[in-house]
Amino acid sequence: MKTTNALLDAGAIALSSLCLLHCLALPLLAAALPLLGVWAEAEWVHIVFVAIAAPTTGFALWRAHRKQPLPAAAIVSATAGLLLLLAGAAGWPSHEAETPMTVTGSLLLASTHIWNAWRRHRH
């Protein structure tokens, strides 16, 4: 079970990192390669990232909570990160806010999973 929790946290961290990479690196690559520009701006990419991140985060934190109660800050951080990802994917409140919201959400999720992994190894 400990291995499963570690894999879930590692997977969630990797997904958050991919999301962050998508938000920061792909626009630069898109400027150089027009073909990637179409993919970088595709709305389905954002929806896929959120659709993968939400259940992965929920399951990882639920499994961690079964072992020992999670601090409220971890739940708030994960929830805020997911909500920011969802809002960014939906383009709400504006298209201009999409990248900062998605980057912040990815960083919140990744830091929550790193914190969760640290707590698990500490106990």
Write the layout of secondary structure elements.
Elements: H1 2-24, H2 26-32, H3 34-40, H4 43-67, H5 72-90, H6 98-122
Helix pairs in contact: 1-4, 1-6, 2-3, 4-5, 4-6, 5-6
Number of strands: 0
- Mean pLDDT metric: 82
User: How large a portion of the residues is in β-strands, by DSSP E?
Assistant: under 5%
Helix content: over 70%
Radius of gyration: 15 Å
* SSE string, helices as H and strands as E: HHHHHH
Task: Calculate the terminal CA-CA distance, rounded to whole Å.
Answer: 14 Å
Shape annotation? elongated
Poorly predicted sequence stretches spanning 5 or more consecutive residues: none
**Main beta sheet:** none
Tally of alpha and pi helices: 6
Query: Structural class, judged by helices and strands?
Result: mainly alpha
Q: How many domains?
A: 1
